[in-house]
Amino acid sequence: MRRLVPLVFLSLAACAAPLDVVGLRPLSPPPYNLAPKLESLQPALRWEPFPRPMDLEADRGGWVSRVRHVTYDLRIWRGVRDPHGYQEVYPAELVYSRSALAIPEHLVEMELASDTQYLWSVRARFELDGQPRVTPWGVLILPGQSPGDDPRSVSVPPRGYYRFVTP
What we know:
Shape: globular
Number of strands: 10
Oligomer: single chain
Number of helices: 2
Largest sheet: 5 strands, antiparallel
Radius of gyration: 16 Å
CATH architecture: Sandwich
CATH superfamily: Immunoglobulins
Structural class: mainly beta
């Protein structure tokens, strides 16, 4: 049971306030509910490193000092509007994926389609006491939303993806 405590802590600590983040917070583009228009078809994405500053501050049991071999997984989906007329945007297809990124930033290595909304997320992989672990996929928590609001698939994160629009 001791092994699960850090993951539970990460999920619960990150969803306390509206427009808060579960998982790792994006730094560029910043975490807005609306999709910022970027200047490049090959965006540079940045996110906070793991362990996060809030993990370091709340590390009463000393688990952060036992974290080893941190890498990051990144996914980008082309967005599509909800077919029922709602304003929500969902992932249509996975267009870009990278694993085992060594640093908390990445320049997309291909040109994305122009004037298109994309959804993205990132998570950390790490070892704790020799056991492999992952953080939750990073998403925004909107007012009145819970991290489990999108039951369509367990292979992608819930609604509230980080967003951007290409030029």
